[in-house]
User: Which sequence fits this backbone?
């Protein structure tokens, strides 16, 4: 009798990552960040990581070298679980996404997208519908985010014109009580900045840096856990110090 999908024992894993623009690198979606997310997920399983594949090109291109190398690799290494950060990293096309999923099934492999979970038990129709709804949801989220940015910029422009916009000290500094407009260093925040620079020099992703600092007991100015957006902001402001050693 043929084994059902649920009875198959998967022992190995591989990771696929992709970026198409420099903006994605700056926004925390770098190849290193994606791989870090996937490695964290694999570490929680008994799977053995046997390969990583990357592309720096459009998700609508099925002839990406990293993708094709991975599909060839999987034909020789069945019963492997493919991990991706989000479904859009694998493909920006619904049709291509289904084609890739079918190719994985033929190789006796399965796909786990960290935003979808395990898709191996979905039918072709269900997978297509789930992908379509996911892309629609992301398009709406991007549109809403764009509208919010426009409203914020418009509000700040009006405040600046009226003289109501006061500069806010960046992370690591604070205003001197007796000298308006003059800033001084905040010692505990400077410690966090130094650690961020040190870990970024070693190639750590924004996410992994934020996670490490939070686990070590450091917090943001608000007292909340440190978020990768704060780490990114610190890295951008200290880009010259980081690049000097790279």
Assistant:
């Amino acid at each position: 009798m043929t084994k059902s999908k649920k009875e198959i024992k998967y022992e190995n894993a591989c990771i696929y990552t992709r970026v198409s623009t420099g903006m994605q690198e700056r926004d925390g979606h770098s190849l290193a960040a994606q791989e870090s997310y996937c490695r964290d997920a694999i570490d929680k399983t008994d799977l053995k990581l046997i390969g990583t594949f990357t592309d720096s090109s459009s998700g609508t291109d099925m002839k990406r070298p990293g993708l094709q190398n991975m599909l060839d690799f999987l034909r020789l290494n069945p019963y492997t679980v493919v991990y991706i950060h989000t479904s859009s990293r694998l493909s920006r096309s619904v049709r291509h996404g289904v084609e890739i999923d079918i190719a994985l099934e033929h190789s006796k492999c399965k796909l786990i997208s960290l935003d979808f979970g395990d898709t191996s038990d979905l039918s072709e129709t269900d997978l297509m519908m789930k992908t379509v709804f996911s892309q629609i949801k992301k398009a709406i989220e991007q549109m809403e985010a764009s509208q919010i940015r426009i409203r914020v910029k418009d509000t700040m422009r009006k405040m600046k014109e009226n003289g109501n916009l006061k500069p806010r000290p960046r992370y690591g500094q604070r205003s001197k009580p007796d000298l308006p407009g003059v800033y001084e260093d905040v010692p505990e925040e400077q410690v966090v900045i130094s650690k961020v620079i040190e870990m970024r020099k070693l190639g750590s992703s924004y996410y992994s840096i934020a996670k490490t600092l939070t686990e070590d007991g450091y917090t943001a100015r608000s007292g909340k856990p440190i978020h990768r957006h704060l780490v990114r902001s610190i890295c951008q402001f200290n880009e010259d110090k980081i690049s000097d050693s790279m």
Observations:
- The chain has a mean pLDDT of 81.
- The longest helix spans residues 124-161.
- Residues 172 and 189 are 5 Å apart (CA to CA).
